[in-house]
Amino acid sequence: MDAGIPPSIMGGRLGAIQTVGRRARRLGGDASLVIGVAIVGALILLVSLAPVLAPANPNTQDIAQILAPPGTPGHLLGTDALGRDVLSRVLYGGRIDLFVALGALILPFAIGVLVGTVAGYRGGALDGVLVGVVDVVFAFPILVLLIALVFVLGPGITTIVVAVTAVDWVAYARLTRTLARRERAMEYVLAARVGGVPHWRIVARHVLPNIISQPVVYAMSDAVGIILFITTLGFLGLGVQPPATDWGTMIADAQNYLDSNWWLAVIPGVAICLAGLGLSLIADGLAQRLDAR
Amino acid sequence: MHAEAAPQRPILTVSGLRLVADARAGHGEIELVAGAMLHAYRGEILGVVGESGSGKSLTLRAIAGLLPPGVRVAGGEIDVAGIDAVRGSAKDLRRLNGQTVGMVFQEPMSALNPTMRIGPQIAEAAAAHSGSTRAAAKSRAVELLGRMGFKEPGRQYRLYPHELSGGMRQRVMIAIALAGDPPLLLCDEPTTALDATVTMRVLDLLGDLVRELNIGIVFVTHDLGVAARICNRLVVMYAGRVVEEGPADAVLRRPRHPYTLALLRAVPTRGSRVEDLRAIPGAPPSAGEQLPGCSFAPRCAFSLPECLEPVPLIALGSGRMSACIRHELLADMAGRARD
User: Fold this and answer.
1) What is the CATH number of the domain that holds A86?
2) Which residue of B has its CA nearest to A194?
3) How many domains would you assign to chain A?
4) Which residues in chain A have their CB less than 8 angstroms from residue B179's CB?
5) Helices (H), B107-222
6) How far is the C-alpha of B16 from the C-alpha of B237, rounded, in Å?
7) Which of A3, B26, B147, B324 places its Cα 20 to 30 Å from the Cα of A123?
8) Do B128 and A197 touch (CB under 8 A)?
9) Domain containing A204: what range?
């Protein structure tokens, strides 16, 4: 922290202290961003390479080694009650969790940001309708609404993405609507309007680039929630259907073995925690970095 | 001055303009501008002066079609180079923007998009109405930057707004406003956020542009010193009304409305002593407050009982108008002061 701050230029101690503080915050933000990206990147890399890395087929049963503890030769993280390799199952399960999360993140983000920006910029009837829809959706407990939707649509990966999109776009729309309304009154938007720049172009080049950072930060913390939601669905048996698996299903299957075979629940649990931690760190780092600007 | 020397068709005519804000919960409407009247000509800078809330900026925004939400035109005419800006079709209004009027805002920081390089911001405005190719729009932007006094326009094209000083940003704003070659430039306090020396250079640039491009400028300001420096004619607004109009020189030296006089007495100049400065007693009427007759009467040192009757703008000859029934008294005072 001490290097690189010429005290003479700072015009006294206060300036120096402020600069140090700002740098520390900056570095703190950068550090969480780096660590977060490292964790999430490593997880994505691991699950992408599951076919190469996994020691066994996740559904193959090794009847001779049922409930083998971690460290057993051939089964690094042990096996479950049916003799399936836990490491392989965590890797393949993560694939489903992370890629479903990606879809359930991008779709609501894109729809919500688009609708929110246009409604906030245009105002009028479209805006009124949006506000009404937002109020209605937010009046429900989100998780209950989601579970109800999944129940109606029937379990499965597509259902998860559709359900999350149907509910979650509202959060992005509400956020960007407010930002776009503020942006609409900015003088450079007025200047572009007087300049005869078409509305679609004003939205694309003047409004969106100036408001996009907040929904991006929100998306990162939202991703944590989505992963938790997917695993919750899996736990409740409404998510991924057997024989495919995900972290939530694994924890659900491990319920009966919590006191005797801890690794069955702890290993996918740690995976969920890591994904959540990594995404939270990214959100935190991004927010601080955008704040500093 | 210019207007007298060459009688020509005005590039901008505003007459009887009424702007109202719709009050909440059906309490009727609040009148913000009550019958503003302006004429602007090519080759001349028309100053619109008045204190905050006098309706000068709102009038300017109405001309550009940029009224804030909730404010609307309730009556009157705005004619910009033959286009009816109040009742014009959507197509007319598109033509109005950029091709007919350009606008320069007060705050050069917020008037430029911080995420876009300055060159493309100018090129975008240039391309918007000429429908020119990207290359043509870019060369037009570079040319405009050069015209605005940028030394290396080709390189500076790629700068971001935060890399420029306030004065330079204001020059970029002017370039954007002029990109569509409009005959009328609207300036909303363009120098208020700048320091004095930079202000002078921007004013000089605007003066040059009026002469060289033969455009008309409507220049809204609350700074009488700035108005005295560049305006050919002045319109003084008070509480949503025009109270005096005339050649800038004459209005500032020999005001014919007590409000103009009071404004001038409140401005420190080199010749005056601090003890002679006079604050205007009282406060302007709040928005929507309806006063019978002259709205300045309650604060006026010369008011008579007759001032509670409505006062029209009275033509005084040589291009001057005043909305004061006692304009002759003021003329006498000014005459004495001159002798």
Assistant:
1) 1.10.3720.10
2) B97
3) 1
4) 195
5) 118-130, 134-147, 153-156, 166-178, 196-213
6) 13
7) B26
8) yes
9) 13-292
